[in-house]
Every structure is written in C-alpha cells, then in structure tokens.
Amino acid sequence: MALRDHFGEAAAAIAEREWRLSVAPRRLLPARTVRCAVACAETALSLLMAQSQLLQFEFSARLIGWRFRRVAESLDMDPAALSAEFRQALDEALTVDFQLPPTDPEMAAARLRTLLTNGLH
C-alpha cells in the first residue's frame, strides 16, 4: 500500500509483481525485501516517466513530432500550416496527459484529435 501511495499504481504494480508482494501482506516483510521493492519501484517510475516524456516529444505540435503529424494528417490538416502559437497552445493543453505515467498513446491521440477538431477551450 505504501508503495502505491508513494510511487503510483503502475510503478508499485511492477515492484509488487517483481518481488511477489501482495497489497495486504499477512506478515512483516524483511528490511532487505522492502529496500529492494522500493528500489524496484523507483526504477520503474523513472522508466515510466522517461517513456512518458518520449511520447510527449512524439506528440509535440511545436516540434511537429511524428505522432502529432500522423493525427493532424488523418484530419486532412497540414501540421506545418498551423501557427506556432496554436501549436504551442496544443502542447500546453496536452502537458497534463503526460504528467502521470504511464501515458496511453491511444488516449493522447484521441485527446489531440479532439483539440484539433474542436479547437482549444
């Protein structure tokens, strides 16, 4: 439970699976197991955050990332024709989607599609 509170669901689930921990253990865990599980959760969180940041680059309108380009072109939009200010606003609107890993690329694409179709509100 403490792992989930501190590292979030995804990173804690990885550590729990790796160290075969249950959410509500029936006994006290050895200090070594706790230290190793915490280190595993820290590593998992770092990996998930790096993955999320990479996806943020791929969806970046300002950088015209490949996933952004794919979504825009699927809507028959020329990504380069959008103003720099609008692309910056898109990136700012999408920032929250990349804050808590793991980021679902399909959900980010759907949100970007909505923002491009309906405009920023």
What does this protein structure show overall?
This is Sigma-70, region 4. The protein is built from 6 helices and no strands. The two termini are 37 Å apart. With 121 residues, the protein is an all-alpha fold. The protein folds into 2 domains: 1-49, no CATH class; 59-121. The longest helix is centred in the middle third of the chain and has 28 residues, at 31-58. The relative contact order is 0.13. α2 (9-18) crosses α3 and α4 (66-74) packs across α6 (105-118).
SSE blueprint:
Elements: H1 2-7, H2 9-18, H3 31-58, H4 66-74, H5 84-94, H6 105-118
How would you summarize what this structure contains?
This is Sigma-70, region 4. The chain is mainly α. The protein has 6 helices and no strands.
What distinguishing features does this structure have?
Sigma-70, region 4; 121 residues; 64% helix; 6 helices; 2 domains; elongated; mainly alpha
Tell me the overall shape.
Answer: elongated
What Rg is obtained from the alpha carbons, in whole angstroms? 19 Å
The total count of strands amounts to 0
* Unreliable parts: none
Bin the helical content.
55-70%
Number of self-contained structural domains:
2
Strand content: under 5%
Number of helices: 6
How does the major sheet shape up?
none
On the 0 to 100 scale, the average pLDDT is 91
The CA-CA distance between the termini, in Å, is: 37 Å
The class by helix and strand makeup works out as: mainly alpha
In N-to-C order, the SSE pattern is HHHHHH
